[in-house]
Amino acid sequence: MVSARRLFKHFEELVAVDHVDFDIVRGESFGFLGPNGAGKTSTMRMIACMSPKSGGELTVLGMDPETRGPDIRARIGLVPQEDSLDLQLTVLDNLMIYGRYFDLPKKVIGERAASLLEFAQLTERAHDTVEPLSGGMKRRLTIARALISEPDLLILDEPTTGLDPQARHLLWDRLYRLKSRGVTLIITTHYMDEAEQLCDRLVVMDKGKIAASGSPASLIERYSTREVLELRFPPDAGPSRNALAGIAERVELLPDRVLLYTESGDRALAEVGARGITPLTWLVRRSTLEDVFLSLTGRTLID
Amino acid sequence: MTSGTTPGAIARHDLLAPGGPRITPLALLGLGRAKRVFQRNVVVYRRGWIFIVSGFFEPFFYLVSIGLGLSKLVGAVHVGGQAFPYTVFVAPGLLAASAMNGAIFDCTFKIFFQLKIMKVYDSMLSTPLGPSDVAKGELMWAICRGGLYCGVFICVMAAFGYVGTPWVVLCLPAALCVSFAFSGVAMAGTSFMRSWQDFDFVFLAALPLFLFSATFYPLTVYPGWLQVVVRCTPLYQAVTLLRGLDLGLFTWSLLGHLAYLLAMGAAGMAVTARRLARLVLP
Ligand SMILES: Nc1ncnc2c1ncn2[C@@H]1O[C@H](COP(=O)(O)OP(=O)(O)O)[C@@H](O)[C@H]1O
Ligand SMILES: [Mg+2]
After folding, report:
1. Measured between CB atoms, does A83 come within 8 Å of chain B?
2. The domain at A225-286 falls in which architecture?
3. Closest-lying ligand to the alpha carbon of A203?
4. Nearest Cβ partner of A50 from B18, B19, B126?
5. For the whole model, what pTM was predicted?
6. Dihedrals φ, ψ of A81, to 5°?
7. Which residues of chain B does A89 touch, with a Cβ-Cβ cutoff of 8 Å?
8. Count of alpha carbons within 13 Å of A228, Cβ hemisphere only?
């Protein structure tokens, strides 16, 4: 559905997207995982024909965004990073008017709007203005609005950033439903749990480049170990790299904690104890995409 | 007995309705998508109708103050070799000025608000609408709204007996052109504004136009060089066009004024579309 080859984007001096390649196929949910400033939004805007590329090749739904922008946008639903709801309109009118931009007949929009309000759990708020809605409600309305044209491709730019855990889980549930209906999803996020939960395949993006790509499980397998032992120490009282040598395949010393990458967290913990190192707290957990990112870039996703 | 729709009619309707390219007059003018932007304004202002009604008072204020006040002090004015009462002379000038002011107020504040504060165009441009559809749609709205006020203005002129000849009816389409010209340029200018402070420039430009464009007295009161300057200004073009039509003084130069205004509006529209693309689709 989307194919990019050496896709490039710069703003004046600043390189935002640096020669990336990816292919997104019909029906999958594809993720872009990366910290702020990685170039995710810039990439989404190019796919949505809202920003011209500076170089490389890009095909969306088999068309060239440069020449077929309106045709492509007609078949894409975009949930931008910042909600761009029409604050001068009511909840229902946001859907109605947006649908009119796609040249849909009023009757069709009306029917779809009713079921989308249900989907977004906003039926009771249909005639309220948008302004007083909570962040989660606004986000759901933005998603409902993007679905009014029944798009082939739904682009979600950081769908849950800034939401509380409850609102996030509700949104994830809605996105699962879309996925199971066969809508192709593109999701950007800097939350590794979101990427693991929602994405069939993803690329890890950093500083405009793609650092790795694959399914969440395959990325973890390739770039991390099965388990991680997390140790916390008082500030500036952590052990040195030498003191931990040989315990794990890889060691990351972060400002607030030490991560030991190993096949067995328990065995590593026993070895730490045997060497007389006593952390404040410890935790054995599975590897996550956060660990993949750390191993690829040496930095954490959210700083 | 009331008749329902016949089955045949339903079938025809279904064939035409869904999504496909429909041939409407607006579509033929390339305004098929711009119409959607216009419709959004209709919905927004359905709730804010008070802003629309408030605009109707302006002609009353203008015409009453001039009619009761100034006209008592000023005698007849000569245009094209004929003498006209001052009220008849000044009314089309005020109509032009009112069309200009309406266009400027509407387009600058509203467009800035929607572009920079409400981000209305960000979401419009994530749909099949393009920057020029947005520019055209907003202009359609501005012109219709301006036309509504000018229509009221002309009716008030007629009620007060301030019209020159029945040709005044031509002032309405001409006033739409005036509205187009100033709306286009006002929108284009607004797209360059960075903050509300920049609106001071709007007043800096509009006030001298209002006062010096032969709105209140004939151009001949100026020395020669100043006449040349004033002739180039857009409000002078508008005033002269509307006055010529109202007084029934038809000359070829009216077409020149019309062309000037249309070119001005078209240029403003083109610049607005380009600026929207730059600002919203970087
Ligand atoms: N319109 C713009 N003008 C200038 N720089 C921009 C613009 N949009 C994004 N950038 C820059 O491009 C880089 C990538 O940004 P973005 O694509 O928003 O990253 P992400 O969505 O991953 O946080 C950032 O350094 C950002 O400051
Ligand atoms: Mg972003």
Report:
1. no
2. 2-Layer Sandwich (3.30)
3. 1
4. B126
5. 0.88
6. -60, -45
7. 40, 43-44
8. 23
